[in-house]
Amino acid sequence: MARPVQKVEIGFDLSDTGTGPFFRLDDAVQGVLDNTDFFLAGALFYDVTNLVQSVAIQRGKNRQLDQYDQGLANVVFNNNLRTFDPEYTLSPYFGQIIPKRQIRISSGGVVQFFGLIDDWNLLYAPNGDSTAAAACSDALSSFATQTIAVRTNAVQKSGERVATILSLPEIDWPLDQRNIDTGEMTLGADTIADNTNALTYFRLIEQSEPGSFFIAKNGYVTFKDRITAPSSTGITLADDGSGIDYQSLKVQYGSELLANEIVVESAITTTQVIAQDVDSIEEYGIFNLTRTGLLINSDTDLANLASFYASKFAQPEYRFESVEVLLDELTPAQQTDMLNLELGDVLEIKFTPNGIAPAISKYAEVIRIDNSVTLENHVMSLGFATLDFALLVLDDPIFGKMDSNNALAF
């Protein structure tokens, strides 16, 4: 099989250089009024794939109880002709090799990363073999540098609160670049202190739901509430020929996600609730999980959250932590399945340790997606949260079973 076709595009504004599809006065073709082919100004995406040597993308988190980190990408270019040298006036992109240029990375026709270039790192070797590396991050890094002015919020659902903050003048995130669930948790009418960090506040909303807040691979701000239903209709990774083959699998079993004493506190009601799983404490000792400063508007909801955590994390978890898949060895259809994966998607994983039956089969939520692309191959690494305890999904063959560990509601 062949490696998926790669594409890297950077948003450059070349309107001042006289090159590109821009309007030119008195030009018989590019100077025609009211045409739709030539632009007055602005950044356009330019394909620079022919100079790419390698791409590395990291998105997601390592554990289910963590919050999503900012997505990162690093693209290494051949710079022997000084194409990406900000001091080289003959570069076709002169004046645009600067921070905060948009970058879009695709594989097999599917976008895998959309963000901004933070730094250009240039390496000049004595033999003239030089590179330029674009260090990139997604919009979470932008939120980390933005602040919210003092304000008092209305009582609203968690997703509505996310949307409200995104629409503030100091954030002003485009409406057509959002994928926001309404949310299940009702948040109270808190007063945000002046100059509150935007990302810190978004993550407080996320914990109060609790849900998932991240930047999708297409650059959209995404918020999933806690009842976003898992689906058992996804693809299967398997080592027995019954699904997409993987190269290696890492298993984690221990106390990293063990929590049997839960302390949650609302900054709205000033109430603290403690929930314990006595059987778990007797078996393993106390493992504490504390969440304070939450925006929950109801003491009942606060107590339900504590009970939910105590039930979900009371036992050690045997989980498939990560797998690596070599896309070069997959069929085109399998490559497309893998490249279409997004954080929060659900897979079935089949594993037969050392080829010794019986196989272990689990459904897992994708919480990390890394891509490593060189001129030779494309390796995708996935990280998981095992769905041994999930919310009930009516009519689903896996998550709709009444006698399994699927919870009716929270």
How would you describe this structure to a colleague?
By secondary structure, the chain is mainly beta. 13% of the residues lie in helices and 36% in strands. The chain contains six helices and 25 strands. It has helices at 139-143, 158-166, 198-208, 278-284, 299-312, 332-339, and strands spanning 6-12, 44-47, 52-60, 69-78, 102-107, 110-123, 131-137, 147-148, 151-152, 156-157, 178-180, 186-187, 191-192, 196-197, 212-215, 221-224, 236-238, 248-254, 261-266, 272-276, 288-294, 317-326, 346-351, 360-373, 378-386. The strands form six sheets. Strands 1, 2, 3, 4, 5, 6, 7, 17, 18, 22, 23, 24 and 25 form a 13-stranded mixed sheet that branches. A three-stranded mixed sheet has the order 11-16-15, covered by helices on one side. The chain has a three-stranded mixed sheet with strand order 20-19-21. Strand 15 and strand 16 (221-224) form a beta hairpin. Helix 2 (158-166) packs antiparallel against helix 3 (198-208). The protein is flat. The chain starts with 5 loop residues before the first strand and ends in a 24-residue tail after the last strand. Residues 22-26, 28-33 and 35-41 have low confidence and may be disordered.
Summed up, what is this model?
By secondary structure, the chain is mainly beta. It is built from six helices and 25 strands. Strands 1, 2, 3, 4, 5, 6, 7, 17, 18, 22, 23, 24 and 25 form a 13-stranded mixed sheet that branches. Strands 11-16-15 form a three-stranded mixed sheet, with helices on one face.
